[in-house]
Design goal:
33% of the residues lie in helices and 28% in strands. It is α+β, with helices and mostly antiparallel strands. It has one domain (12-85). It is globular, with a radius of gyration of 18 Å.
Length: 89
């Protein structure tokens, strides 16, 4: 009897995880993946890469369309940096 090994296909999360603000910062997916893209860019990446911001934009046109994901680094707010520098005695 032959044992068949099926390689894992890349998921939407895998593609989004490869994105980097310093390299490939924009990816476009077919509209059929809209739910998976929004979930991956929102909830999943928030925990895996919390210092990045993932923004999605839908461009629906007559003969097709896409959902675009853009990654950028989050800017630290002044309040957070001040709190980190304070030392309580």
């Amino acid at each position: 009897m032959e044992i068949i090994k099926i390689d894992k296909q890349p998921s939407v999360t895998d593609y989004i995880a490869q994105m980097d603000p310093n390299g490939e910062s924009v990816k476009r997916f077919h509209l059929q993946h809209i739910k998976a893209v929004r979930e991956a860019a929102g909830r999943k990446m928030k925990f895996e890469k919390p210092n990045y911001k993932y923004e999605t934009t839908v461009n629906a046109i007559d003969d097709g369309g896409y959902i675009e994901v853009v990654v950028s680094e989050k800017k630290r707010s002044a309040n957070k940096s001040r709190r980190n520098n304070e030392i309580s005695i």
